[in-house]
Amino acid sequence: MSKECVLVTGGGSGIGMGLAEAFHARGATVMIAGRNRASLDAVALRCPGMMVADVDVSQPASVEALVACVADRLPGLNLLINNAGIQQVLDFAGETPPDIATISREIDTNLKGLIHVSAAFLPLLRRQPSARLVHIGSGLAYVPLAMAPVYSATKAAVHSFTMSLRYQLADTSVKVVEILPPVVDTALHRGLARTPPKAMPLPAFVAAAMKGLDAGDPEVVVGLAKVLKLAQRVAPRLFFGVVNKNSV
Ligand SMILES: NC(=O)c1ccc[n+]([C@@H]2O[C@H](COP(=O)([O-])OP(=O)(O)OC[C@H]3O[C@@H](n4cnc5c(N)ncnc54)[C@H](OP(=O)(O)O)[C@@H]3O)[C@@H](O)[C@H]2O)c1
């Protein structure tokens, strides 16, 4: 097997950081990319040899610059983890609904950003005899969280896009994988009054995600996200009520 050469977007914190550290710990060559150089540098300081790069995935020119940087510094890229994302609590029922800029920020990061990154890096990935393109989705793709309506919609769209991409690339060297996390204890939930109950600790999530990746699963559905996957098939209205009644 060729050496793992890994790029993680949004690798300066949370799930991206956890996965980057796990790959680094087992000897992979790893680059993390994001908007916040201080948090990227802090992760790299703990992981000798880890590379850092700047990117704002919501800006196409920034994504193109990252492709050039990776082609130069990590030309053997064979595992891209499309992880960068934001979550906003948005109230459309109030007197002032969210403005277009706020709504666009979430779509441009979670959906357009992910699609742009995938498209822009496919030529590099396809140079390798075997490569993986990993999308970080969400259990909320199955059952939306109403207080994060745009976020939930972007994750449902990511799930749909990932299925189509996997189908289109089936006869190529690139395997398309989606990881669907449950609620994980990270800074993603900073917009909420408190961390959601039943949040999975980050180390436990990373261990489960790495196990699924190593098993070669095309869909790595972790923890309570498995319940949501089943729920949307057997009792979607019931579980929509459950998820939204218990939300903070
Ligand atoms: N935590 C959960 O419960 C959960 C559940 C399901 C799915 N997920 C998904 O997991 C992924 C990682 O989230 P997390 O929970 O680890 O939260 P996080 O700690 O807030 O990580 C998100 C990362 O994305 C980066 N980022 C945000 N906007 C970016 C942009 N425009 N360009 C480049 N980087 C950007 C952030 O860095 P800066 O803000 O510093 O740029 C940060 O490092 C997201 O896709 C999220 O939707 C999380």
TrEMBL record:
The keyword rRNA-binding does not apply. InterPro entries: NAD(P)-bd_dom_sf (IPR036291), Sc_DH/Rdtase_CS (IPR020904), SDR_fam (IPR002347). It holds the Pfam family adh_short. Keywords: Oxidoreductase. SUPFAM superfamilies: NAD(P)-binding Rossmann-fold domains. It comes from the Bacteria. Gene3D superfamilies: NAD(P)-binding Rossmann-like Domain. The keyword Ligase does not apply. Belongs to the short-chain dehydrogenases/reductases (SDR) family. This is SDR family NAD(P)-dependent oxidoreductase.
